[in-house]
């Protein structure tokens, strides 16, 4: 077996290909992983490692099955120790709280049934309360790149284990950023799905109405494989939601929101500021159009999370312990969660009303953009700094993360470069709930444009690209007349699931005419060598399966051809045969159909 080539990164795609071609076996892979674990630098990753014999029990089950039949056959993974694994203690980083479940968490069982092999339970900030990875009686989990720095939390051990090559993927949780911050600090993909998409049955609650199970992976393709298995609907989970289809956005022509400069915060870290602006430039190079957004509704929502009802919800989750055995909690955990008794019922309703108002205000951004990008965090700290100021520095790390679940968004943390000192930097892409595939597709492009290695491994990123038919099978179509948003024929687009991508202008080589006939009135756009102008157009994404029926409704002399936009990009779009301009009114001077209609209505 060519182990050196086949499992260097332990990425899922390579392992599955090796199993299916019979070049490697799960037993050989697990033995290789055990060697890595034994040789790994101590980072305070583990709370409970499974005994070798326990792991090989899973291997023996797989040896009786075919790799062709199981989507995660022989894939080793680790589990944050607030998520149950049958027969293994769950501590939530509080030894006095430990219990041994008879059944695995719903998500964990789904993964095992799909062929994945659990290796153990990993360290975390106690009761998942923290973004630093230092709030654990099992020791401060250390960054995979530099042990003097924090790993990020609360899913600290899960991120560091993956970054060091001790597993192929890992599970965390993400209520306030716990699955994204450690991903950013350890050069990983960190997927926070929509609330309820992954079951939280068998997960120790932190803030139950907001908790999410998250996925750490080396690449978007790996994250998507795990998500596909894990997202099965759990009818026993009161907070579970069925997966919902969302409209795809073009991966070639997309609009991405960026907070106004006044809202960006880097806490004095000029390197993170530089890297973020470089990421924005990369997104533009990948086909994105930058849109400055009002970020204040998001920031104001973030400030709600550690006040009033949501702290009370954390208190409720561990009420018995904090009231009757407070000494079993770390002082910082007790201080934060202890404030939960101060919220009244009046406060709860008041805060919920405010959250709803801010959510509505934040929705203005989605009328302008397909996705928003921010730094995952504004900076990173040394462990000693956090120990000296544990509350404020932890709060700083939540600046770009705390609003996500309160606003019902999906997000993915993406590796986006390195500081001069070698520490990773990451950005977060986010969009309304259930946009996981759209986000992973863009994350894959951005990761590959930004870094060349996964985690802290000295190897190249796996070659496997993320493939997603829902984001790939769309056709960008430029419209210039009655199909513009809100006009007479726009329903022919929206009824087919088309989505507005951008408002722009054509290249300055076109003339626009008002064609005779109607209703409705129609425009005709003709390319001309000289004397042309830039005409107002909208670009819509039309699902490929509906493109034919859309085109079939277009009457002569109009047709779909290729149209050049102001930025030099060519897209499919409405053009007019030249014979039709005889007797038509030249309205090029208006610059667009809307302006002409406003003028014409004034005359009438």
Describe this protein's structure.
With 604 residues, this protein is of the alpha+beta class. The protein has two domains: 9-234 and 248-469, Alpha-Beta Complex (Amidase signature (AS) enzymes); 473-603, Hypothetical upf0131 protein ytfp (Roll). Helices cover 32% and strands 19% of the residues. The protein is built from 21 helices and 19 strands. It has helices at 3-6, 12-20, 26-39, 52-62, 106-113, 156-163, 181-185, 220-230, 270-285, 296-304, 308-317, 319-324, 331-338, 345-362, 383-388, 390-397, 436-450, 469-472, 491-494, 544-552, 593-603, and strands at 46-49, 76-80, 117-122, 169-173, 189-192, 213-217, 254-259, 288-293, 371-375, 409-418, 424-432, 474-479, 499-505, 510-515, 522-527, 536-543, 558-564, 570-576, 585-586. It has an eleven-stranded mixed β-sheet. A five-stranded mixed β-sheet has the order 13-16-12-18-17. Strands 15-14-19 form a three-stranded antiparallel β-sheet, with no helix packed on it. α9 links the parallel β7 and β8 (288-293). α8 (220-230) runs antiparallel to α17. The longest helix is centred in the middle third of the chain and has 18 residues, at 345-362. The protein is globular and about 85 Å long. The termini are far apart.
Provide keyphrases for this structure.
Hypothetical upf0131 protein ytfp; Amidase signature (AS) enzymes; five-stranded mixed beta sheet; disordered N terminus; eleven-stranded mixed beta sheet; about 600 residues; 19 strands
| Helix content bin | 25-40%
Highest CATH level, the class of the largest domain:
Alpha Beta
Beta strand count: 19
The CATH homologous superfamily of the largest domain is named: Amidase signature (AS) domain
First-residue to last-residue Cα separation: 81 Å
How many whole angstroms does the radius of gyration measure? 27 Å
Mean pLDDT level: 94
Q: What portion of residues belong to β-strands?
A: 15-25%
